Amino acid sequence: RARPPLFLPLACGDAEGRLEALFGRVRAIQDKSGRFDMLLCVGNFFGSTSDTEWTEYRTGAKKAPIQTFVLGANDQETVRYFPDVSGCELAENITYLGRRGVFSSTSGLQIAYLSGTESQDEPAPAYSFSSKDVTELKTSLLSTPNFKGVDILLTSPWPRDVGNFANSPGKIDTKKCGSTLISDLAASLKPRYHFAALEKAYYERLPYRNHTVLQETPQHVSRFIALADVGNTSKKKYLYAFSIVPMSLMDPAELVKQPQDVTENPYRKSRKEAQKTKALVCEEPACQFFFDLNKHQGKKRPSDGKERGNSQPKQAKNPSQPTGPCWFCLASPEVEKHLVVSIGTHCYLALAKGGLLPDHVLILPIGHYQSVVDLSPEVMEEVTKYKSALKEFFRSKGKRYVLFERNYRSQHLQLQVIPVPLDCTSEDIKESFITQAQEQQIDLLEIPEHSDITQVARPGTPYFYVELDTGEKLFHRIRRSFPLQFGRAVLASPALLALPERADWRRCAAGRPEEAAQACAFRRDFQPFDLAPPE
């Protein structure tokens, strides 16, 4: 079966007329990472000093390097740049979407948009929207058969109360800033991605639910991302790259998978209060597994971790509340990108922070997946390719790898890959793991070489497993507690690497320059074995 189309958009905050800076940055990104499909601009595309730069694009002297879609004016001063309120081409490759509406690509990607800032007046000024505009946009979509939501929502103001139940938005007070009409619009349209600007701040909110746990059929999650202004001196993020398959083409079970860091819907409370209805039944907190940074390797958002079909999986007891974005989702600003050594379509490789060895590497999904058993087929396929590439790479250096995963007190799948000398036989490695497991009353059992881990562990099951580059596997179902450093401690033991002093990653922390140098060396050596870049 043919794969559904994958779109690669870029989203941008307030350009403020700084088009050379914006398009220069886009060119640099495309030169490094390949072509993106479109640039979606929210906030103020034009500024008070736009004329000089804009004239070159309007006249055709210069051309935007990517198909660019922009929202309309947010103040009277810039209304003059938008000659047709219903939308028009402003220059080659630069299109004004219009006052409000829905843009659908030929492959089904659906983008809803609303230009301007909120106004209480009817009719609203040319640079504003009113409750009537929001109602008409909602009605046009909600009246369509089987409406589930839109792929992307573009607005300039933030939605009011977006910070409810969420990670901190910094200095922005989300109870005072933004628009209540946009909150209502977002709650109704259920965008998978919602972009906004105007506050000169970058804020990536944790994904939130669009259904009531145990009362409604699971639905997809929404992600709100606010972007800063182009070329800001504080170096806040103003460009956001992401990939998306149109909702209409996704497998329904894949679409509704829930990331582990999902939160309650931020708008439900405000809508409820506005309607003065009875309080809803108290919902269970989100199933979150934010790990103790003192006990984990590496640093590092969402793609989609998950619920299967229409059934609601059991939630973890007393899950910790979110304290920030995922440290391992590649799109997260928290990722220590200097440790990344290879990026595929669905996965990436990064050196382990405080690695047991300089070439101790992690295989990580780009999106948010809790464990191997949660991976979609295409992600699993790429994990397998990375395993093969690493096997060939390490064998070329007279080594073999040992891989392990601990799906316990972890939030994002990390496959730890550590090389050992080739003269460490499979039997030596298995014996070391099994012996040390027995000493700690851990039942580590060998499972058939060609069996799939999903055959012995269901999603949500805590487990630890070891895999050799021969395909041999050892598995332990975690029922109570489990030593967090077990896998690393076995490999560091005298029977294998004889590096007991490096059993705890916290004692192996290196400075950023040293980490960057190690990553550069690994990247160079691994390059001949790296996966071919996606076409």
Summary?
The protein is of the alpha/beta class and 535 residues long.
Offer a few descriptive terms.
535 residues; six-stranded mixed beta sheet; eight-stranded antiparallel beta sheet; Cwf19-like_C_dom-2; single chain; alpha/beta; Cwf19-like_C_dom-1
As laid out across the biggest beta sheet, the strand order is 15-16-17-19-18-21-22-20
Measured as a percent range, the helix fraction is 10-25%
Structural class: alpha/beta
Radius of gyration (CA) equals 25 Å
| Poorly predicted residue ranges | 275-324
State the assembly state of the protein chains. Answer: single chain
Number of helices, where a helix is a run of at least 4 consecutive DSSP H or I residues:
10
The total beta strand count reads: 22
Instruction: Characterize the main sheet.
Output: 8 strands, antiparallel
CA-CA gap between termini: 18 Å
Please, what is the average pLDDT?
A: 86
Strand residue content = 15-25%
Give the overall shape.
elongated
Family: Belongs to the CWF19 family.
Biased composition (Polar residues): 310-322
Domain Cwf19-like protein C-terminal: 442-531
InterPro entries: Cwf19-like, Cwf19-like_C_dom-1, Cwf19-like_C_dom-2, HIT-like_sf
